[in-house]
């Protein structure tokens, strides 16, 4: 038999009340701290902006929308293709599916529903990373639903400036966090006037899925790419972001002009890289878009994806990599 022992009679009523008050006080402070740390921006971006509510759209033009498959970088390809197709066919772009890029950008187009499309036709890509002409002339007598990963710069080349200036505009708090970070690095390294070059090192899942065609850029690639910028600019500062920063620090350049980001927030690292002047890419759509948004010179690893694999056979390189980028 188990007995419950009551010590309240030995403490006295005053001490019991004091103990209860102390416990409630500690509990209250704990609750407040949890609320504060779960809502503040501390690099984890736990407080996510919400998309605008569904609104009636008086625009009489037929509507076009897109699927959102994959993750952030994939969504940016799909969104870019949507804007390019809408402009090319004089249609109204709407979003009928949820996308994580609301968390980064002030997307200006309305959120709608499939009902907004009335009758619509589905258009499916031929290859995930290859251009096809399906968005060139949509049937504008009805709505259009674009389906696929749509990973080609050619789908949205007609709206390139518009995408960067009006659509992929960072939320104010994220833009400020990125600029504050960059300015602190400049001061720390005494590189206030240096040319900024982002370096992205993608490892993690790309190391584990080689059979599919995912490849990681080898160590010599990064040294050669960074050497290119050092030769071109007398004063340069590299900001290196990675999903495996420990490996990067152990294997890559530790010169005074190299800074390693230890941020755990992919949104913040993406905003930092996009705010640089030039880019050394690694592999994958996340890295691709950071390079696209810098607007400067972009060096990419020509070995991605690996030929004669699932990824390799589904990628048309001239469609995936813009011709003004530099293969290495």
Give the SSE string: HHEHEEEHHEHHEHEHEHEHHE
Q: What structural category do the secondary elements indicate?
A: alpha/beta
Percent of residues in β-strands: 5-15%
**Which parts are unreliable, with pLDDT below 50 for 5 consecutive residues or more?**
1-11, 30-46
Q: End-to-end span in angstroms?
A: 76 Å
Shape: globular
Mean residue pLDDT: 86
Cα-atom radius of gyration: 25 Å
- Counted beta strands: 10
State the share of residues found in helices, binned by percent: 25-40%
Main sheet: which strands, in order across? 7-6-5-8-9-10
Give the biggest sheet: 6 strands, parallel
Quickly count the helices. Answer: 12
Write structural notes for this entry.
39% of the residues lie in helices and 12% in strands. Helix 3 (72-89) packs across helix 10, helix 5 (172-189) crosses helix 9 (266-274) and helix 9 runs parallel beside helix 10 (285-294). Mean pLDDT is 86; it is low at 1-11 and 30-46. The N and C termini lie far apart (76 Å). With 328 residues, the protein is of the alpha/beta class.
List the helices and strands and how they pair.
Blueprint: H1 8-11, H2 13-39, E1 63-66, H3 72-89, E2 92-93, E3 120-124, E4 143-147, H4 160-167, H5 172-189, E5 195-201, H6 205-208, H7 219-232, E6 236-242, H8 245-251, E7 258-260, H9 266-274, E8 278-280, H10 285-294, E9 298-300, H11 310-313, H12 317-320, E10 326-327
Parallel strand pairs: 1-2, 1-4, 3-4, 5-6, 5-8, 6-7, 8-9, 9-10
Helix pairs in contact: 3-10, 5-9, 9-10
């Amino acid at each position: 038999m188990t007995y419950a022992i009551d010590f309240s009679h030995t403490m006295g009523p005053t001490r019991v009340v004091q103990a209860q008050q102390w416990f409630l006080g500690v509990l209250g402070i704990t609750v407040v701290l949890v609320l504060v740390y779960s809502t503040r921006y501390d690099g984890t971006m736990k407080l996510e902006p919400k998309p605008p509510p569904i609104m009636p759209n008086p625009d009489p033009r037929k509507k076009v929308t897109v699927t959102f498959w994959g993750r952030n970088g994939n969504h940016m390809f799909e969104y870019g293709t949507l804007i390019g197709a809408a402009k090319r066919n004089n249609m109204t772009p709407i979003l009928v599916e949820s996308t994580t890029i609301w968390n980064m950008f002030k997307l200006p187009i309305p959120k709608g529903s499939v009902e907004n499309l009335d009758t619509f036709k589905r258009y499916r890509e031929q290859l995930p990373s290859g251009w096809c002409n399906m968005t060139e002339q949509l049937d504008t007598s009805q709505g259009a639903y674009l389906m696929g990963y749509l990973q080609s710069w050619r789908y949205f080349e007609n709206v390139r400036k518009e995408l960067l200036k009006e659509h992929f505009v960072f939320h104010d708090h994220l833009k400020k966090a990125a600029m504050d970070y960059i300015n602190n690095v400049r001061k720390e390294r005494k590189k206030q006037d240096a040319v900024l070059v982002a370096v992205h090192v993608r490892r993690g899942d790309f190391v584990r899925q080689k059979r599919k065609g995912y490849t990681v850029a080898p160590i010599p690639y990064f040294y050669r790419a960074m050497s290119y910028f050092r030769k071109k600019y007398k004063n340069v500062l590299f900001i290196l972001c990675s999903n495996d920063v420990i490996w990067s620090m152990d294997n890559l350049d530790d010169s005074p002009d190299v800074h390693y980001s230890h941020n755990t927030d992919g949104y913040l690292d993406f905003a930092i890289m996009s705010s640089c002047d030039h880019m050394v890419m690694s592999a994958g759509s996340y890295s691709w878009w950071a390079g696209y948004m810098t607007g400067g010179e972009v060096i990419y690893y020509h070995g991605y994806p690996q030929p004669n694999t699932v990824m390799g056979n589904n990628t048309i390189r001239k469609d995936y990599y813009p011709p003004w980028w530099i293969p290495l």
